[in-house]
Amino acid sequence: MVSKLSTRLLNICIASYCKVRQLDRAESIICDAIRLGVLPNTVTYNTLIDGYSRLVSFEAAYSLLHRMSEASINPTVITYNSLIAGATRNCLVLKSLELFDEMLQRGIAPDIWSFNTLMHCFFKVGKPEEAYQVFRDIIHHDLSPCPATFNIMINGLCKNGYMSNALMLFRSLQRHGFVPQLITYNILINELCKAGRLKAASRMLKELAASGYVPNCITYTTIMKCCFRSRRFEQGLEIWQEMCDKGYTFDGFAYCTIAGALIKCGRINEATCYMDQMRRNGIEHDLASYNTLIHMYCKEGKLEAAYELLDEIEGVGLECDEYTHTILIDGLCKIGNIEGAQRHIKHMNVMGFSSPSVALNCVVDGLGKAGKIDHALQMFESMETRDSFTYSSLVHNLCNARRYRCASKLLLSCLNNGMKILRSAQRAVINGLGHSGFHKEARQLKLKIRLARMVHC
DNA sequence: CTAGGGTTAG
Question: Is NAD found in the keyword set (predicted)?
Answer without folding.
Answer: no
